[in-house]
Structures are given as C-alpha cells and as structure tokens.
Design goal:
Number of strands: 6
Helix content: 25-40%
Strand order of the largest sheet: 2-3-1-4
Order of helices and strands: EHEEHEHEEHH
Structural class: alpha+beta
Strand content: 15-25%
Distance between the termini: 22 Å
Shape: globular
Number of helices: 5
Largest sheet: 4 strands, antiparallel
Radius of gyration: 19 Å
C-alpha cells in the first residue's frame, strides 16, 4: 500500500487598509498610532471560517489552472486550522500539487462577495508535518508580539525607521535563511526524477 504524502502550508492573511496602503515611515516615538508591525495584521471577519477559506482556495485554483488544477487538488485540499483572531491558517494538500495551491493563494486579492474586503494571502512556511507548521505559527506569533511591544534594549533610529542593534534582517529573524520550504530527502529525489 502506498502512503499519500501531504504538504502543510502556513498562511497569514494580511488586510491592507486604505489609509496605510502605501509604505510610509512614521516617527517611532509617536504613541497615537498602532505599531508598524500590526498595521496589516488584523483579525479576520467573523464570517470568514475554514469552510469558506477552503472554497476560496478551490475557486482560485480553478480560475488559474482550470479543470486540471481543480481536479488535482480537490481530493486532498483541507483547511486543518484557521484562527480568525490571528488570521492564520494551515492548509493540507497533496505533496505533488502543493505548488498549485501556493500559486492560487498568491493571486488571491479579495475575500468573497459577502465580505468584499481586500486581502493578501502570504504563504510563510511549507512543511511536511503539521507539527512543524504549528511550531512555526507559534514562533511567528511570539515574534509579532515582541515587535508590537516595541524594540527594547539598544534601538537605533535611522530616517524614522527603528532597527535593533544586532538584529537580523526580517527573513533571517524569522529563521528563513534556507527558504520557506522544508525539503526532505525523499522530495529532493522525487524532484530530480521528474
């Protein structure tokens, strides 16, 4: 019997606001506005749930890849976890077709008709196990909380942008030096065979 292998996509849903749509620098000492790290990270609307998110992804795959893409992902696409408070989701899909779902998520720009809200779907991690995806979600949530609380310790302000001395680039701080995909030995061999 052949075991079906899956990939788990950790997705953040970002909600760009009309007044913060363009990138701008603010005075880091001002207290009246929300921290820059929280501008796009808002809770999802109550009407958005795991079932609606799965339907959105299926519709997006069908729009981009037609019947072929829809047929390839329809049997294995499941939203395993969705948190409206953190706007974070974990989506499970067959390993052979996770790139179709990733592409479809990248091209999604709006929530469906009853909500009609602009959004950005950001795939932040692809993993072979749900445990690693959950650990990454927890680690990112903790890092976002630290960023929202402000930079403590030795902070340097350059042209209105706060950076911590000794802090790494955001991708390096998130532990993404090697990319966002967890490649195991089996997958690398499978990719070479194709």
């Amino acid at each position: 019997m052949v075991r079906i292998k899956h990939r788990y996509l950790l997705v953040n849903i970002l909600y760009p606001d009309e007044k913060t749509r363009n990138v701008h620098h603010r005075d880091p000492t001002s207290k009246e506005a929300a921290p820059y790290a929280l501008e796009f990270r808002q809770p999802s609307p109550d009407a958005l749930n795991a079932k609606l998110l799965a339907r959105m992804v299926r519709d997006s795959v069908a729009e981009l890849f037609g019947d072929y893409g829809s047929g390839m992902v329809s049997g294995s696409l499941i939203v395993k976890y969705f948190s409206p408070a953190t706007s974070t989701a974990i989506i499970r899909v067959a390993r052979a077709h996770y790139r179709l779902v990733w592409a479809a998520l990248t091209f999604m720009t709006d929530l469906p008709t009853p909500l009609n809200q602009p959004c950005v779907m950001q795939v932040v991690r692809v993993s072979g196990t749900i445990r690693k995806a959950e650990e990454e979600a927890i680690r990112r949530a903790r890092l976002a909380i630290r960023k929202a609380q402000g930079v403590s310790g030795n902070a340097v302000v350059i042209d209105g942008v706060v950076s911590a001395q000794g802090a790494l680039d955001e991708d390096e701080g998130m532990g993404m030096e090697g990319g966002i995909e967890d490649l195991d030995d089996d997958e690398m061999e499978d990719d070479e065979d194709e």
